[in-house]
Write a structure and sequence with these properties.
The protein is of the alpha/beta class. The protein is about 40% helix and about 10% strand.
Length: about 325
């Protein structure tokens, strides 16, 4: 049996995971029993197993304290990779496998992870999350309550992503202090967003006017990520999606990068990948889909060869994620 005392102030919520999910993964993989009380852990098992578990927990604690938002996929990958490269530091194993990130988490979570990491590392002083308040193909009618109660249903997906990245109580405190702000896109008009990590989610439902308004809010020492799915536009037919239009307008602007994902990057149930593939085949019956032919990328308009958007490779989202769009 071993005792492990973590550094004071260790982010145990990130290290242990939701409902101690990360500890359970380590227990199952290494054959040890772990119990935590505050910042002290008890490791029970064979000498080799407890020594290995102590090393894993110590290195993961360092990453959590450095601002990395650990997810169950990270723990699983680290444990698997350690079996192949037992002497390699976990930080190196995780940083060299960005493909796990791009293929296991979809666009909103990827952007949220970068934002939370930047905030925890004090690279920015606040996170601002915006979303167009557009109904998805149906009329919800009159919604009761004040202005914030009316727009809250549209913003719920951002709260879901945030609470997956941060302990709920910690996130709630950050929102109360103003370190994290979640608001409809229309509330951005007239503001200048300095020292912020700004995410515009579901940007395919922003109009051309709203997109210009949002992008020109960028202030000093700020970073912007715009995410969206151009195949799921809920705007009226007569309105142009700002996300579709902006690809043509800004494709030659230095410092802005467009990154495209396909159904292989979907994180939801495996059936979702098959559903997307089936819809693509229905809409493009002449194209071949399958393992041997590959899946065609969904890029509705051609882009000059010298400015081709980068595919979602292991390096692109993390090498330079600022200004990316989907």
């Amino acid at each position: 049996m071993r005792k492990l005392k973590l550094r004071e102030g260790t982010n145990t919520a990130v290290l242990f995971g939701h409902h101690d999910r990360h500890l359970k993964l380590i227990e199952e993989d290494l054959g040890v029993r772990l119990s935590a009380r505050g910042e002290e852990l008890t490791l029970d098992g064979t000498p080799d197993a407890t020594r290995h578990a102590e090393r894993v927990l110590t290195e993961l604690a360092t990453l959590a304290n450095d601002g990395m938002v650990l997810q169950p996929d990270d723990i699983t990958h680290a444990l698997s990779a350690l079996r192949q490269s037992p002497e390699t530091p976990i930080k190196e194993l995780l940083s060299s496998s960005a493909a796990i990130v791009t293929k296991k988490r979809f666009k909103t979570y990827l952007a949220m992870a970068m934002a939370v990491s930047a905030l925890l590392k004090k690279e920015v002083s606040r996170i601002i999350l915006a979303r167009p308040a557009v109904e998805a193909g149906e009329k919800l009618g009159f919604l009761p309550g004040d202005m914030y109660a009316k727009v809250n249903p549209y913003l719920r997906p951002l709260y879901d992503a945030l609470f997956d990245m941060m302990d709920m109580e910690r996130a709630a405190r950050a929102i109360e202090r103003g370190d994290i702000e979640i608001a409809p896109l229309g509330f951005m008009r007239g503001r200048t967003l300095n020292d912020s990590f700004v995410i515009l989610d579901e940007a395919q439902n922003a109009t051309a006017e709203q997109m210009k308004m949002f992008l020109t809010r960028l202030g000093f020492h700020s970073k912007v990520v715009v995410t969206g799915d151009i195949t799921q536009v809920d705007l009226p037919p007569e309105r142009v999606s700002g996300l579709i239009e902006v690809r043509e307008i800004l494709r030659d602007v230095e410092g802005i990068e467009f990154v495209y994902f396909d159904e292989r990057d979907v994180v939801r149930h495996k059936l979702v990948q098959d559903i997307i593939k089936a819809y693509d085949q229905h809409q493009n019956p002449t194209q071949s889909f399958g393992p041997s032919s590959g899946v065609p990328e969904r890029r509705p308009s051609p882009v000059p060869h010298n400015k081709q958007p980068k595919p979602a490779t292991p390096s692109s989202p993390f090498t330079d994620p600022w200004g990316q769009s989907h």
